[in-house]
């Protein structure tokens, strides 16, 4: 009984402190709800409400769609959380407080379960190749030399040598 009385007293004191803050703007209707939530929080600190939290952690998550349906389209991946299609799941998972590994573990997915739709991944790959990502610096110079050699009138080995000399003297 003393623990419950202490929790009520402490919750009341915290509520009074909250209301005495000049920045707190509330109506009289909100005070009982705040007091109740404060009492629940204070009681939870004492260990009285520890069991419901344990139940939430062991709660079985039911997927909104099957694994097969989530990967049925190449244009999007259907989320097992809400059943909506996404090109990439990373932002959606972070808004739900999950990492890709936690998501895979929650729904029993394989470690190689994709987080990005196949067509979206391919379009990003093509764009990256187009702007030159993933190439070594020398490869870019070689392609430039070859394009210069094709546009010159000399042609052949002489044009390649001239282009390489021109690029070598500029660097």
Automatic annotation (TrEMBL):
GO biological process: regulation of DNA-templated transcription
Record GO terms (molecular function): DNA binding; zinc ion binding
One Pfam family this sequence matches: ROS_MUCR
Family from the record: Belongs to the ros/MucR family.
Protein name: Transcriptional regulator
């Amino acid at each position: 009984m003393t623990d419950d009385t202490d929790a009520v007293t402490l919750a009341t004191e915290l509520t009074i402190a909250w209301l005495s803050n000049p920045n707190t703007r509330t109506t009289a209707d909100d005070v009982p709800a705040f007091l109740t939530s404060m009492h629940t929080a204070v009681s939870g600190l004492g260990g009285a409400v520890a069991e419901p939290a344990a139940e939430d952690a062991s709660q079985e998550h039911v997927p909104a769609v099957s694994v097969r349906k989530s990967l049925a389209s190449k244009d999007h991946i259907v989320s097992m959380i809400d059943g909506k299609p996404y090109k990439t799941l990373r932002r959606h998972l972070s808004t739900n407080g999950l990492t890709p590994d936690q998501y895979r573990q929650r729904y029993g997915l394989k470690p190689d379960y994709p987080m990005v739709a196949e067509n979206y991944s391919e379009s990003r790959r093509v764009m990256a190749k187009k702007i030159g990502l993933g190439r070594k610096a020398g490869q870019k110079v070689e392609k430039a030399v070859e394009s210069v050699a094709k546009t010159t009138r000399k042609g052949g080995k002489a044009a390649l040598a001239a282009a390489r000399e021109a690029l070598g003297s500029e660097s």
